[in-house]
């Protein structure tokens, strides 16, 4: 643990009311992986019903865009909207625990760094929706170039 009772770097990072993580890394990773596999599998199976007009490359890209779009919208959305003080929740949700673990890799999330907040706004507002739009456009065989 860091100097202030938390596992984040720098040890001097002030996190008033820090509550240690209750879920293990595996308990956090398993639901995320399960949900990710379900999303990719669903997109793969549904895209296969397009009468063979989508290549495997298109279908693979659709799976990636759906995964990344939903990951960014759901996780970044929960970070900004529902987890502003995730490190101090006495009865943490899965998302609070997820961000405690995630912050071990980038403590700017725990510190609510303004640059991170600005990047997450961009992620929620543009990157996630653009990825989901790419899935939709691929299914409908729409292209910005042909409009």
Task: Describe the structure concisely for a colleague.
The protein has 147 residues and is an all-alpha fold.
Describe the fold and architecture:
By secondary structure, this protein is an all-alpha fold. Helix content is 57%, strand content 0%. It has four helices and no strands. Helix 1 crosses helix 2 and helix 2 packs antiparallel against helix 4. The radius of gyration is 19 Å and the shape is elongated. It starts with 24 loop residues before the first helix and ends in an 8-residue tail after the last helix. The mean pLDDT is 89.
Topology, element by element:
Layout: H1 25-47, H2 56-81, H3 94-102, H4 114-139
Helix pairs in contact: 1-2, 2-4
Major β-sheet annotation = none
Structural class: mainly alpha
Question: Quick check: average pLDDT?
Answer: 89
Number of strands: 0
Q: What's the gyration radius in Å?
A: 19 Å
Low-confidence runs of at least 5 consecutive residues:
none
- Gross morphology: elongated
Q: Percentage of helical residues?
A: 55-70%
Protein name: EXPERA domain-containing protein
InterPro entries: EBP, EXPERA
Family: Belongs to the EBP family.
Membrane topology: Multi-pass membrane protein
Task: Spell out the key features of this protein.
mainly alpha, 147 residues, elongated, 57% helix, 4 helices
């Amino acid at each position: 643990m860091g100097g202030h009772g938390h596992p984040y770097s720098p040890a001097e990072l002030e996190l008033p009311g820090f509550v240690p993580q209750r879920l293990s890394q595996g308990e956090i990773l398993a639901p995320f992986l399960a949900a990710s596999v379900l999303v990719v599998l669903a997109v793969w199976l549904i895209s296969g019903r397009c009468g063979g007009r989508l290549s495997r490359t298109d279908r693979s890209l659709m799976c990636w865009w759906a995964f990344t779009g939903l990951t960014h919208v759901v996780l970044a959305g929960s970070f900004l909207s529902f987890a502003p003080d995730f490190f101090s929740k006495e009865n943490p949700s899965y998302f609070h625990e997820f961000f405690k673990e995630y912050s071990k890799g980038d403590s700017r999330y725990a510190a609510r760094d303004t640059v991170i907040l600005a990047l997450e706004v961009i992620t929620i507002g543009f990157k996630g929706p653009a990825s989901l739009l790419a899935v939709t456009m691929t299914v409908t065989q729409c292209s910005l170039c042909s409009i």
